[in-house]
Amino acid sequence: MSNSHIRGILAPAVTPFGMDLQPDSTRFIAHCKWLLRSGCHALAVFGTTGEANSLSVRERKALLDELVSHGVEAGRLLVGTGCCSLSDVAELTLHAVKAGCAGVLMLPPFYYKAVTDEGLFRSVSETIERVADNRLRVYLYHIPPVATVGFSIELIGRLVEAYPGIVIGIKDSSGDWDHTRLLIGAFPGFGVFSGNEFSLVDNLKYGGCGCITATANVNAFAIRKLFDSWHHDNADMLQQRVNDTRAILGRFPMISALKGVISRFRDDEGWRVVRPPLVELTNHVVEGLLNTLVSQGFVMPDISGEDE
Amino acid sequence: MSNSHIRGILAPAVTPFGMDLQPDSTRFIAHCKWLLRSGCHALAVFGTTGEANSLSVRERKALLDELVSHGVEAGRLLVGTGCCSLSDVAELTLHAVKAGCAGVLMLPPFYYKAVTDEGLFRSVSETIERVADNRLRVYLYHIPPVATVGFSIELIGRLVEAYPGIVIGIKDSSGDWDHTRLLIGAFPGFGVFSGNEFSLVDNLKYGGCGCITATANVNAFAIRKLFDSWHHDNADMLQQRVNDTRAILGRFPMISALKGVISRFRDDEGWRVVRPPLVELTNHVVEGLLNTLVSQGFVMPDISGEDE
Lengths: 308, 308
Fold this sequence. Notes:
Order of helices and strands of chain A: EHEHEHEHEHHEHEHEHHHH
Number of domains of chain A: 1
Strand content of chain A: 5-15%
Mean pLDDT of chain A: 96
Number of helices of chain A: 12
CATH topology of chain A: TIM Barrel
Helix content of chain A: 40-55%
Distance between the termini of chain A: 35 Å
Largest sheet of chain A: 8 strands, parallel, barrel
Oligomer: homodimer
CATH class of chain A: Alpha Beta
Protein backbone atom coordinates (compact mmCIF):
# COMPACT_ATOMS: atom_id res chain seq x y z
CA MET A 1 0.00 0.00 0.00
CA SER A 2 1.34 3.36 -1.04
CA ASN A 3 1.86 6.23 1.39
CA SER A 4 0.64 8.62 -1.28
CA HIS A 5 -2.31 10.75 -0.27
CA ILE A 6 -3.46 10.89 -3.84
CA ARG A 7 -3.64 8.53 -6.75
CA GLY A 8 -5.30 8.44 -10.11
CA ILE A 9 -5.28 10.85 -13.00
CA LEU A 10 -3.72 14.24 -12.41
CA ALA A 11 -3.62 17.07 -14.90
CA PRO A 12 -0.59 19.33 -14.76
CA ALA A 13 -2.84 22.30 -15.39
CA VAL A 14 -1.77 24.78 -18.02
CA THR A 15 -1.46 28.40 -16.88
CA PRO A 16 -3.35 30.96 -18.99
CA PHE A 17 -1.98 34.45 -19.65
CA GLY A 18 -3.60 37.63 -20.86
CA MET A 19 -2.44 39.36 -24.02
CA ASP A 20 -0.10 41.35 -21.73
CA LEU A 21 1.48 38.02 -20.66
CA GLN A 22 0.24 38.44 -17.09
CA PRO A 23 -1.15 35.27 -15.45
CA ASP A 24 -4.91 35.15 -15.83
CA SER A 25 -6.43 33.81 -12.64
CA THR A 26 -10.02 33.89 -13.91
CA ARG A 27 -9.31 31.56 -16.81
CA PHE A 28 -7.03 29.47 -14.54
CA ILE A 29 -9.70 28.90 -11.90
CA ALA A 30 -12.30 27.97 -14.52
CA HIS A 31 -9.90 25.54 -16.19
CA CYS A 32 -8.89 23.88 -12.92
CA LYS A 33 -12.49 23.45 -11.78
CA TRP A 34 -13.41 22.00 -15.15
CA LEU A 35 -10.52 19.53 -15.00
CA LEU A 36 -11.71 18.27 -11.63
CA ARG A 37 -15.25 17.93 -12.98
CA SER A 38 -13.96 16.13 -16.07
CA GLY A 39 -12.41 13.21 -14.31
CA CYS A 40 -9.11 14.34 -12.80
CA HIS A 41 -8.67 13.02 -9.29
CA ALA A 42 -6.38 15.92 -8.52
CA LEU A 43 -4.25 18.59 -10.20
CA ALA A 44 -0.53 19.13 -10.39
CA VAL A 45 -0.39 22.90 -10.70
CA PHE A 46 2.83 24.75 -11.61
CA GLY A 47 4.64 21.97 -13.38
CA THR A 48 6.46 21.99 -16.70
CA THR A 49 3.15 22.06 -18.58
CA GLY A 50 2.03 24.91 -16.33
CA GLU A 51 4.97 27.07 -17.47
CA ALA A 52 5.79 27.43 -13.78
CA ASN A 53 9.43 28.24 -14.34
CA SER A 54 8.34 31.12 -16.52
CA LEU A 55 6.53 32.61 -13.50
CA SER A 56 7.93 34.50 -10.53
CA VAL A 57 7.54 33.21 -6.99
CA ARG A 58 5.06 36.00 -6.33
CA GLU A 59 2.94 35.06 -9.36
CA ARG A 60 2.88 31.41 -8.35
CA LYS A 61 1.84 32.15 -4.80
CA ALA A 62 -0.86 34.56 -5.93
CA LEU A 63 -2.33 32.06 -8.39
CA LEU A 64 -2.42 29.32 -5.77
CA ASP A 65 -4.12 31.62 -3.29
CA GLU A 66 -6.73 32.59 -5.89
CA LEU A 67 -7.38 28.96 -6.74
CA VAL A 68 -7.95 27.90 -3.16
CA SER A 69 -9.96 30.97 -2.22
CA HIS A 70 -12.26 30.28 -5.18
CA GLY A 71 -13.12 26.84 -3.96
CA VAL A 72 -10.59 24.50 -5.52
CA GLU A 73 -9.90 22.03 -2.75
CA ALA A 74 -6.28 22.31 -1.55
CA GLY A 75 -6.33 18.61 -0.70
CA ARG A 76 -6.60 17.89 -4.41
CA LEU A 77 -3.56 19.94 -5.35
CA LEU A 78 0.03 18.88 -5.86
CA VAL A 79 2.01 22.10 -6.18
CA GLY A 80 5.19 22.38 -8.20
CA THR A 81 7.77 24.15 -6.05
CA GLY A 82 11.17 23.09 -7.42
CA CYS A 83 13.36 25.96 -8.64
CA CYS A 84 17.05 26.62 -9.08
CA SER A 85 17.15 28.76 -5.97
CA LEU A 86 17.02 27.17 -2.56
CA SER A 87 15.29 30.23 -1.10
CA ASP A 88 12.57 30.08 -3.76
CA VAL A 89 11.93 26.37 -3.26
CA ALA A 90 11.64 26.84 0.48
CA GLU A 91 9.30 29.83 0.14
CA LEU A 92 7.00 28.12 -2.35
CA THR A 93 6.97 24.86 -0.43
CA LEU A 94 6.13 26.55 2.85
CA HIS A 95 3.36 28.47 1.13
CA ALA A 96 1.84 25.30 -0.35
CA VAL A 97 1.95 23.52 3.01
CA LYS A 98 0.29 26.45 4.78
CA ALA A 99 -2.42 26.45 2.10
CA GLY A 100 -3.19 22.84 3.03
CA CYS A 101 -2.16 21.33 -0.29
CA ALA A 102 -1.88 17.56 -0.64
CA GLY A 103 1.79 17.78 -1.45
CA VAL A 104 4.50 19.44 -3.47
CA LEU A 105 6.12 18.24 -6.67
CA MET A 106 9.79 19.13 -6.42
CA LEU A 107 12.18 19.53 -9.32
CA PRO A 108 15.85 19.31 -8.44
CA PRO A 109 17.75 22.60 -8.86
CA PHE A 110 18.48 22.46 -12.57
CA TYR A 111 20.91 25.23 -13.48
CA TYR A 112 24.20 23.59 -12.58
CA LYS A 113 24.95 20.41 -14.47
CA ALA A 114 27.09 17.49 -13.32
CA VAL A 115 26.16 18.12 -9.71
CA THR A 116 26.55 15.37 -7.14
CA ASP A 117 23.86 13.34 -5.39
CA GLU A 118 25.21 14.80 -2.16
CA GLY A 119 24.50 18.33 -3.42
CA LEU A 120 21.00 17.37 -4.58
CA PHE A 121 20.32 15.61 -1.29
CA ARG A 122 21.25 18.80 0.54
CA SER A 123 18.93 20.82 -1.69
CA VAL A 124 15.94 18.70 -0.75
CA SER A 125 16.90 18.20 2.89
CA GLU A 126 17.62 21.89 3.47
CA THR A 127 14.19 22.72 2.04
CA ILE A 128 12.49 20.19 4.31
CA GLU A 129 14.36 21.50 7.33
CA ARG A 130 13.48 25.11 6.52
CA VAL A 131 9.81 24.33 6.03
CA ALA A 132 9.82 22.35 9.28
CA ASP A 133 6.17 21.33 9.08
CA ASN A 134 5.11 17.72 9.51
CA ARG A 135 2.23 18.20 7.09
CA LEU A 136 4.77 18.44 4.27
CA ARG A 137 4.55 15.69 1.63
CA VAL A 138 7.20 15.75 -1.08
CA TYR A 139 6.88 14.10 -4.49
CA LEU A 140 10.13 14.21 -6.42
CA TYR A 141 9.85 15.45 -9.98
CA HIS A 142 12.16 13.47 -12.25
CA ILE A 143 12.16 14.93 -15.76
CA PRO A 144 15.68 14.70 -17.21
CA PRO A 145 14.55 15.39 -20.80
CA VAL A 146 13.73 18.96 -19.72
CA ALA A 147 15.49 19.66 -16.42
CA THR A 148 18.63 17.73 -17.47
CA VAL A 149 19.34 17.14 -13.78
CA GLY A 150 17.46 14.21 -12.25
CA PHE A 151 17.13 12.01 -9.17
CA SER A 152 19.19 8.81 -9.24
CA ILE A 153 17.85 5.63 -7.66
CA GLU A 154 20.50 5.91 -4.95
CA LEU A 155 19.50 9.49 -4.16
CA ILE A 156 15.80 8.61 -4.01
CA GLY A 157 16.62 5.79 -1.60
CA ARG A 158 18.62 8.13 0.59
CA LEU A 159 15.82 10.70 0.70
CA VAL A 160 13.12 8.11 1.43
CA GLU A 161 15.21 6.75 4.26
CA ALA A 162 16.04 10.16 5.70
CA TYR A 163 12.48 11.51 5.45
CA PRO A 164 10.00 8.64 5.81
CA GLY A 165 6.41 9.83 5.52
CA ILE A 166 7.62 13.11 4.02
CA VAL A 167 9.36 12.13 0.80
CA ILE A 168 6.56 9.83 -0.30
CA GLY A 169 6.45 9.71 -4.06
CA ILE A 170 7.73 10.66 -7.47
CA LYS A 171 6.55 11.73 -10.88
CA ASP A 172 8.68 9.88 -13.37
CA SER A 173 8.81 11.84 -16.61
CA SER A 174 11.87 10.04 -17.87
CA GLY A 175 9.65 8.70 -20.65
CA ASP A 176 11.14 5.27 -19.92
CA TRP A 177 8.65 2.71 -18.62
CA ASP A 178 11.45 0.36 -17.53
CA HIS A 179 12.70 3.11 -15.23
CA THR A 180 9.21 3.72 -13.84
CA ARG A 181 8.74 0.00 -13.22
CA LEU A 182 12.08 -0.17 -11.45
CA LEU A 183 11.01 2.70 -9.17
CA ILE A 184 7.71 1.00 -8.34
CA GLY A 185 9.59 -2.13 -7.30
CA ALA A 186 12.44 -0.42 -5.50
CA PHE A 187 10.76 1.36 -2.61
CA PRO A 188 7.81 -0.22 -0.77
CA GLY A 189 5.08 2.33 -0.09
CA PHE A 190 6.60 4.90 -2.43
CA GLY A 191 4.00 6.52 -4.69
CA VAL A 192 5.06 6.38 -8.31
CA PHE A 193 3.24 8.39 -10.97
CA SER A 194 4.00 7.94 -14.65
CA GLY A 195 4.65 11.18 -16.49
CA ASN A 196 2.31 10.25 -19.33
CA GLU A 197 -0.62 7.93 -20.04
CA PHE A 198 1.15 5.60 -22.48
CA SER A 199 1.96 3.17 -19.69
CA LEU A 200 -1.05 3.86 -17.47
CA VAL A 201 -2.40 0.31 -17.42
CA ASP A 202 1.07 -1.06 -16.70
CA ASN A 203 1.63 1.55 -14.00
CA LEU A 204 -1.52 0.41 -12.19
CA LYS A 205 -0.85 -3.29 -12.80
CA TYR A 206 2.54 -3.06 -11.13
CA GLY A 207 1.27 -1.04 -8.18
CA GLY A 208 1.91 2.54 -9.24
CA CYS A 209 -0.30 5.52 -8.35
CA GLY A 210 -1.48 6.53 -11.80
CA CYS A 211 -0.25 9.30 -14.05
CA ILE A 212 0.30 13.02 -14.17
CA THR A 213 -0.09 13.78 -17.82
CA ALA A 214 -0.13 16.97 -19.89
CA THR A 215 -2.81 15.70 -22.25
CA ALA A 216 -5.30 15.44 -19.36
CA ASN A 217 -5.70 19.19 -19.93
CA VAL A 218 -7.81 18.33 -22.98
CA ASN A 219 -8.50 14.60 -22.66
CA ALA A 220 -9.21 14.02 -18.97
CA PHE A 221 -12.48 12.20 -19.50
CA ALA A 222 -11.00 9.47 -21.72
CA ILE A 223 -7.92 9.01 -19.55
CA ARG A 224 -10.09 8.73 -16.44
CA LYS A 225 -12.24 6.15 -18.17
CA LEU A 226 -9.11 4.11 -18.85
CA PHE A 227 -8.08 4.45 -15.21
CA ASP A 228 -11.46 3.17 -14.05
CA SER A 229 -11.40 0.28 -16.53
CA TRP A 230 -7.78 -0.81 -16.51
CA HIS A 231 -8.61 -4.34 -15.31
CA HIS A 232 -11.56 -4.72 -17.69
CA ASP A 233 -11.64 -6.36 -21.12
CA ASN A 234 -11.79 -3.07 -22.98
CA ALA A 235 -8.67 -1.62 -21.33
CA ASP A 236 -6.41 -2.25 -24.32
CA MET A 237 -8.83 -0.52 -26.64
CA LEU A 238 -9.17 2.47 -24.29
CA GLN A 239 -5.40 2.62 -23.82
CA GLN A 240 -4.91 2.64 -27.58
CA ARG A 241 -7.41 5.43 -27.98
CA VAL A 242 -5.73 7.78 -25.46
CA ASN A 243 -2.35 6.85 -26.93
CA ASP A 244 -3.54 7.92 -30.37
CA THR A 245 -4.67 11.30 -29.08
CA ARG A 246 -1.39 11.82 -27.27
CA ALA A 247 0.64 10.83 -30.31
CA ILE A 248 -1.12 13.43 -32.45
CA LEU A 249 -0.65 16.18 -29.85
CA GLY A 250 2.98 15.09 -29.49
CA ARG A 251 3.70 16.17 -33.07
CA PHE A 252 3.51 19.77 -31.84
CA PRO A 253 5.13 21.66 -28.99
CA MET A 254 2.90 20.22 -26.27
CA ILE A 255 2.05 23.29 -24.18
CA SER A 256 1.19 25.45 -27.19
CA ALA A 257 -0.83 22.59 -28.67
CA LEU A 258 -2.85 22.12 -25.48
CA LYS A 259 -3.60 25.82 -25.23
CA GLY A 260 -4.56 25.87 -28.89
CA VAL A 261 -7.05 23.04 -28.39
CA ILE A 262 -8.46 24.67 -25.26
CA SER A 263 -8.88 27.97 -27.15
CA ARG A 264 -11.10 26.08 -29.61
CA PHE A 265 -13.35 24.20 -27.25
CA ARG A 266 -13.73 27.30 -25.12
CA ASP A 267 -14.08 29.50 -28.18
CA ASP A 268 -11.61 31.89 -26.53
CA GLU A 269 -8.67 33.18 -28.56
CA GLY A 270 -6.90 34.40 -25.44
CA TRP A 271 -6.22 30.83 -24.39
CA ARG A 272 -3.56 30.47 -27.08
CA VAL A 273 -1.12 32.79 -25.30
CA VAL A 274 2.08 31.29 -23.90
CA ARG A 275 4.93 33.07 -22.18
CA PRO A 276 8.29 33.36 -23.91
CA PRO A 277 10.44 31.39 -24.58
CA LEU A 278 7.43 29.38 -25.81
CA VAL A 279 5.58 30.43 -28.94
CA GLU A 280 1.85 29.94 -29.53
CA LEU A 281 0.52 27.92 -32.45
CA THR A 282 -1.17 29.88 -35.22
CA ASN A 283 -4.91 29.51 -35.66
CA HIS A 284 -4.25 27.70 -38.89
CA VAL A 285 -2.05 25.09 -37.22
CA VAL A 286 -4.53 24.65 -34.37
CA GLU A 287 -7.29 24.04 -36.88
CA GLY A 288 -5.27 21.34 -38.63
CA LEU A 289 -4.40 19.72 -35.31
CA LEU A 290 -8.04 19.64 -34.24
CA ASN A 291 -9.18 18.18 -37.54
CA THR A 292 -6.62 15.41 -37.19
CA LEU A 293 -7.63 14.75 -33.58
CA VAL A 294 -11.34 14.58 -34.36
CA SER A 295 -10.79 12.38 -37.41
CA GLN A 296 -9.01 9.93 -35.09
CA GLY A 297 -11.94 9.75 -32.69
CA PHE A 298 -11.08 12.54 -30.26
CA VAL A 299 -14.24 13.97 -28.70
CA MET A 300 -14.28 17.71 -28.12
CA PRO A 301 -14.66 18.22 -24.37
CA ASP A 302 -17.86 19.48 -22.82
CA ILE A 303 -17.29 22.69 -20.87
CA SER A 304 -20.82 23.00 -19.55
CA GLY A 305 -21.31 23.33 -15.82
CA GLU A 306 -19.14 26.43 -15.49
CA ASP A 307 -19.42 28.56 -12.39
CA GLU A 308 -20.90 25.79 -10.32
CA MET B 1 35.38 50.52 -32.09
CA SER B 2 33.11 48.61 -29.74
CA ASN B 3 29.94 50.10 -28.28
CA SER B 4 30.76 48.39 -24.99
CA HIS B 5 30.96 50.70 -22.02
CA ILE B 6 33.44 48.41 -20.40
CA ARG B 7 36.35 46.31 -21.50
CA GLY B 8 39.17 44.48 -19.86
CA ILE B 9 39.29 41.88 -17.12
CA LEU B 10 36.06 41.22 -15.27
CA ALA B 11 35.68 38.87 -12.34
CA PRO B 12 32.35 37.08 -12.06
CA ALA B 13 32.47 37.60 -8.31
CA VAL B 14 31.72 34.61 -6.11
CA THR B 15 28.90 35.09 -3.59
CA PRO B 16 29.74 34.19 0.00
CA PHE B 17 27.25 32.58 2.36
CA GLY B 18 27.12 32.25 6.12
CA MET B 19 26.99 28.84 7.79
CA ASP B 20 23.19 29.23 7.64
CA LEU B 21 23.47 29.50 3.83
CA GLN B 22 22.25 33.12 3.85
CA PRO B 23 24.10 35.51 1.52
CA ASP B 24 26.84 37.32 3.42
CA SER B 25 26.97 40.92 2.26
CA THR B 26 29.92 41.88 4.45
CA ARG B 27 32.22 39.28 2.94
CA PHE B 28 30.76 40.05 -0.51
CA ILE B 29 31.50 43.77 -0.34
CA ALA B 30 35.04 43.15 0.90
CA HIS B 31 35.69 40.63 -1.86
CA CYS B 32 34.31 42.89 -4.61
CA LYS B 33 36.34 45.89 -3.44
CA TRP B 34 39.44 43.76 -3.28
CA LEU B 35 38.87 42.45 -6.84
CA LEU B 36 38.64 46.02 -8.14
CA ARG B 37 41.85 46.92 -6.28
CA SER B 38 43.56 43.80 -7.60
CA GLY B 39 43.30 44.63 -11.26
CA CYS B 40 39.75 43.92 -12.37
CA HIS B 41 38.42 46.67 -14.60
CA ALA B 42 34.90 45.77 -13.58
CA LEU B 43 32.86 42.97 -12.01
CA ALA B 44 30.21 40.67 -13.38
CA VAL B 45 28.17 40.02 -10.26
CA PHE B 46 25.48 37.31 -10.13
CA GLY B 47 26.76 35.08 -12.87
CA THR B 48 27.22 31.32 -12.91
CA THR B 49 30.30 31.62 -10.69
CA GLY B 50 28.31 33.87 -8.35
CA GLU B 51 25.73 31.10 -7.77
CA ALA B 52 23.13 33.64 -8.87
CA ASN B 53 20.58 31.06 -9.88
CA SER B 54 20.77 29.63 -6.38
CA LEU B 55 19.60 33.02 -5.04
CA SER B 56 16.13 34.52 -4.97
CA VAL B 57 15.31 37.77 -6.76
CA ARG B 58 15.04 39.48 -3.39
CA GLU B 59 18.46 38.24 -2.30
CA ARG B 60 20.07 39.40 -5.54
CA LYS B 61 18.54 42.86 -5.33
CA ALA B 62 19.51 43.25 -1.68
CA LEU B 63 23.13 42.24 -2.35
CA LEU B 64 23.40 44.69 -5.25
CA ASP B 65 21.97 47.50 -3.15
CA GLU B 66 24.45 46.74 -0.37
CA LEU B 67 27.35 46.70 -2.79
CA VAL B 68 26.51 50.05 -4.32
CA SER B 69 25.63 51.70 -1.03
CA HIS B 70 29.00 50.61 0.33
CA GLY B 71 30.88 52.41 -2.38
CA VAL B 72 31.33 49.89 -5.15
CA GLU B 73 30.87 52.00 -8.27
CA ALA B 74 27.74 50.91 -10.17
CA GLY B 75 29.41 51.95 -13.43
CA ARG B 76 31.87 49.12 -12.90
CA LEU B 77 29.19 46.45 -12.50
CA LEU B 78 27.71 44.11 -15.06
CA VAL B 79 24.76 42.47 -13.32
CA GLY B 80 23.55 38.98 -14.14
CA THR B 81 19.77 39.15 -14.57
CA GLY B 82 18.85 36.20 -16.79
CA CYS B 83 16.40 33.74 -15.22
CA CYS B 84 13.82 31.25 -16.42
CA SER B 85 10.99 33.56 -15.52
CA LEU B 86 10.26 36.58 -17.66
CA SER B 87 8.93 38.50 -14.66
CA ASP B 88 12.13 37.85 -12.71
CA VAL B 89 14.40 38.93 -15.57
CA ALA B 90 12.43 42.14 -16.01
CA GLU B 91 12.45 42.92 -12.28
CA LEU B 92 16.18 42.29 -11.88
CA THR B 93 17.06 44.18 -15.05
CA LEU B 94 15.02 47.21 -14.09
CA HIS B 95 16.62 47.19 -10.67
CA ALA B 96 20.13 47.08 -12.13
CA VAL B 97 19.36 49.94 -14.52
CA LYS B 98 17.92 52.07 -11.73
CA ALA B 99 21.03 51.39 -9.65
CA GLY B 100 23.08 52.89 -12.49
CA CYS B 101 24.95 49.72 -13.39
CA ALA B 102 27.06 49.59 -16.55
CA GLY B 103 24.94 46.83 -18.00
CA VAL B 104 23.26 43.51 -17.47
CA LEU B 105 24.48 40.07 -18.45
CA MET B 106 21.46 38.14 -19.62
CA LEU B 107 21.12 34.37 -19.73
CA PRO B 108 18.40 33.06 -22.00
CA PRO B 109 15.52 31.37 -20.15
CA PHE B 110 16.99 27.92 -19.67
CA TYR B 111 14.30 25.57 -18.37
CA TYR B 112 12.61 24.59 -21.62
CA LYS B 113 14.86 22.89 -24.12
CA ALA B 114 14.52 22.88 -27.90
CA VAL B 115 12.96 26.32 -27.85
CA THR B 116 12.96 28.45 -30.98
CA ASP B 117 14.97 31.56 -31.76
CA GLU B 118 11.62 33.34 -32.07
CA GLY B 119 10.76 32.41 -28.48
CA LEU B 120 14.17 33.49 -27.20
CA PHE B 121 13.94 36.74 -29.17
CA ARG B 122 10.62 37.45 -27.49
CA SER B 123 12.13 36.76 -24.07
CA VAL B 124 14.80 39.40 -24.55
CA SER B 125 12.62 41.90 -26.39
CA GLU B 126 9.79 41.65 -23.88
CA THR B 127 12.29 42.34 -21.10
CA ILE B 128 13.69 45.37 -22.92
CA GLU B 129 10.19 46.70 -23.55
CA ARG B 130 9.16 46.21 -19.94
CA VAL B 131 12.26 47.94 -18.59
CA ALA B 132 11.71 50.77 -21.08
CA ASP B 133 14.77 52.75 -20.03
CA ASN B 134 17.29 54.01 -22.56
CA ARG B 135 20.11 53.58 -20.08
CA LEU B 136 19.75 49.81 -20.44
CA ARG B 137 22.76 47.99 -21.89
CA VAL B 138 22.36 44.26 -22.48
CA TYR B 139 25.20 41.78 -22.80
CA LEU B 140 23.97 38.37 -23.84
CA TYR B 141 25.27 35.49 -21.76
CA HIS B 142 26.02 32.49 -23.94
CA ILE B 143 26.98 29.48 -21.83
CA PRO B 144 25.52 26.34 -23.41
CA PRO B 145 27.68 23.94 -21.35
CA VAL B 146 25.68 25.01 -18.28
CA ALA B 147 22.46 26.66 -19.45
CA THR B 148 22.03 24.20 -22.35
CA VAL B 149 20.02 26.88 -24.16
CA GLY B 150 22.14 29.45 -26.01
CA PHE B 151 22.03 32.36 -28.46
CA SER B 152 22.50 31.41 -32.11
CA ILE B 153 24.40 33.72 -34.48
CA GLU B 154 21.11 34.44 -36.29
CA LEU B 155 19.37 35.35 -33.05
CA ILE B 156 22.20 37.63 -31.94
CA GLY B 157 22.04 39.38 -35.31
CA ARG B 158 18.31 39.88 -34.97
CA LEU B 159 18.65 41.32 -31.45
CA VAL B 160 21.50 43.65 -32.41
CA GLU B 161 19.47 44.91 -35.33
CA ALA B 162 16.28 45.37 -33.32
CA TYR B 163 17.97 47.03 -30.35
CA PRO B 164 21.03 48.97 -31.55
CA GLY B 165 22.88 50.62 -28.68
CA ILE B 166 20.98 48.45 -26.20
CA VAL B 167 22.03 44.90 -27.04
CA ILE B 168 25.70 45.77 -27.23
CA GLY B 169 27.74 42.74 -26.31
CA ILE B 170 28.09 39.14 -25.27
CA LYS B 171 29.98 36.92 -22.91
CA ASP B 172 30.87 33.82 -24.86
CA SER B 173 31.32 30.92 -22.46
CA SER B 174 30.98 28.31 -25.16
CA GLY B 175 34.58 27.38 -24.40
CA ASP B 176 35.16 27.42 -28.17
CA TRP B 177 37.59 30.10 -29.36
CA ASP B 178 36.53 29.63 -32.99
CA HIS B 179 33.00 30.58 -31.97
CA THR B 180 34.23 33.65 -30.07
CA ARG B 181 36.32 34.73 -33.04
CA LEU B 182 33.34 34.32 -35.33
CA LEU B 183 31.28 36.56 -33.03
CA ILE B 184 33.97 39.25 -33.01
CA GLY B 185 33.97 39.30 -36.79
CA ALA B 186 30.23 39.04 -37.28
CA PHE B 187 28.87 42.22 -35.73
CA PRO B 188 30.75 45.52 -36.00
CA GLY B 189 30.79 47.38 -32.72
CA PHE B 190 29.51 44.39 -30.75
CA GLY B 191 31.46 43.87 -27.52
CA VAL B 192 32.66 40.31 -27.22
CA PHE B 193 34.08 38.98 -23.97
CA SER B 194 35.67 35.55 -23.75
CA GLY B 195 34.37 33.40 -20.92
CA ASN B 196 37.86 32.46 -19.79
CA GLU B 197 41.43 33.74 -20.03
CA PHE B 198 42.81 30.92 -22.21
CA SER B 199 42.24 32.97 -25.34
CA LEU B 200 42.70 36.44 -23.83
CA VAL B 201 45.56 37.53 -26.10
CA ASP B 202 43.68 36.27 -29.15
CA ASN B 203 40.50 37.98 -28.00
CA LEU B 204 42.28 41.32 -27.83
CA LYS B 205 44.25 40.76 -31.04
CA TYR B 206 41.03 40.19 -32.99
CA GLY B 207 39.23 43.17 -31.47
CA GLY B 208 37.33 41.63 -28.54
CA CYS B 209 36.66 43.37 -25.22
CA GLY B 210 38.61 41.10 -22.90
CA CYS B 211 37.40 38.33 -20.66
CA ILE B 212 35.01 37.61 -17.84
CA THR B 213 36.69 34.75 -16.07
CA ALA B 214 35.97 32.83 -12.89
CA THR B 215 39.63 32.49 -11.96
CA ALA B 216 39.94 36.28 -11.68
CA ASN B 217 38.39 35.73 -8.25
CA VAL B 218 41.80 34.50 -7.08
CA ASN B 219 44.18 35.46 -9.89
CA ALA B 220 43.09 38.94 -10.97
CA PHE B 221 46.54 40.49 -10.68
CA ALA B 222 48.21 38.07 -13.10
CA ILE B 223 45.36 38.16 -15.59
CA ARG B 224 45.36 41.96 -15.55
CA LYS B 225 49.09 41.95 -16.13
CA LEU B 226 48.54 39.80 -19.21
CA PHE B 227 45.84 42.19 -20.42
CA ASP B 228 48.19 45.17 -20.05
CA SER B 229 51.03 43.31 -21.81
CA TRP B 230 49.24 41.40 -24.53
CA HIS B 231 51.17 43.12 -27.32
CA HIS B 232 54.52 42.86 -25.53
CA ASP B 233 57.22 40.25 -25.96
CA ASN B 234 56.43 38.51 -22.68
CA ALA B 235 52.73 37.99 -23.50
CA ASP B 236 53.12 34.31 -24.37
CA MET B 237 54.90 33.63 -21.11
CA LEU B 238 52.24 35.50 -19.11
CA GLN B 239 49.45 33.74 -21.01
CA GLN B 240 51.03 30.38 -20.25
CA ARG B 241 51.30 31.23 -16.57
CA VAL B 242 47.61 32.15 -16.16
CA ASN B 243 46.65 29.12 -18.24
CA ASP B 244 48.60 26.87 -15.87
CA THR B 245 46.77 28.29 -12.86
CA ARG B 246 43.41 27.90 -14.55
CA ALA B 247 44.17 24.32 -15.60
CA ILE B 248 44.96 23.35 -12.02
CA LEU B 249 41.78 25.00 -10.67
CA GLY B 250 39.84 23.31 -13.48
CA ARG B 251 40.57 19.89 -12.02
CA PHE B 252 38.05 20.70 -9.28
CA PRO B 253 34.48 21.99 -9.31
CA MET B 254 35.39 25.62 -10.07
CA ILE B 255 33.16 27.54 -7.67
CA SER B 256 34.03 25.37 -4.67
CA ALA B 257 37.70 25.54 -5.60
CA LEU B 258 37.68 29.33 -5.82
CA LYS B 259 35.96 29.64 -2.47
CA GLY B 260 38.42 27.19 -0.98
CA VAL B 261 41.40 29.21 -2.17
CA ILE B 262 39.82 32.45 -0.94
CA SER B 263 39.20 30.86 2.46
CA ARG B 264 42.93 30.24 2.67
CA PHE B 265 44.28 33.60 1.65
CA ARG B 266 41.71 35.30 3.83
CA ASP B 267 42.26 32.79 6.63
CA ASP B 268 38.46 32.57 6.90
CA GLU B 269 36.85 29.13 7.03
CA GLY B 270 33.41 30.61 6.31
CA TRP B 271 34.43 31.39 2.77
CA ARG B 272 34.27 27.70 1.83
CA VAL B 273 30.46 27.60 2.05
CA VAL B 274 28.49 27.08 -1.18
CA ARG B 275 24.77 26.73 -1.59
CA PRO B 276 23.26 23.39 -2.59
CA PRO B 277 23.32 21.81 -5.11
CA LEU B 278 27.04 22.65 -4.92
CA VAL B 279 29.23 21.03 -2.31
CA GLU B 280 32.25 22.69 -0.68
CA LEU B 281 35.74 21.21 -0.91
CA THR B 282 37.14 19.73 2.27
CA ASN B 283 40.03 21.52 3.98
CA HIS B 284 42.24 18.61 3.00
CA VAL B 285 41.42 18.97 -0.69
CA VAL B 286 41.85 22.75 -0.55
CA GLU B 287 45.27 22.29 1.00
CA GLY B 288 46.35 19.93 -1.78
CA LEU B 289 45.01 22.31 -4.42
CA LEU B 290 46.90 25.25 -2.93
CA ASN B 291 50.14 23.31 -2.70
CA THR B 292 49.85 22.39 -6.37
CA LEU B 293 49.06 25.98 -7.34
CA VAL B 294 51.99 27.43 -5.41
CA SER B 295 54.40 24.80 -6.70
CA GLN B 296 53.43 25.90 -10.22
CA GLY B 297 54.24 29.55 -9.52
CA PHE B 298 50.87 30.84 -8.28
CA VAL B 299 51.36 33.77 -5.92
CA MET B 300 48.96 33.96 -2.99
CA PRO B 301 47.04 37.23 -3.35
CA ASP B 302 47.64 40.18 -1.09
CA ILE B 303 44.50 41.20 0.75
CA SER B 304 45.97 44.26 2.44
CA GLY B 305 44.19 47.57 1.98
CA GLU B 306 40.86 46.36 3.37
CA ASP B 307 38.29 48.88 4.51
CA GLU B 308 39.72 51.64 2.41
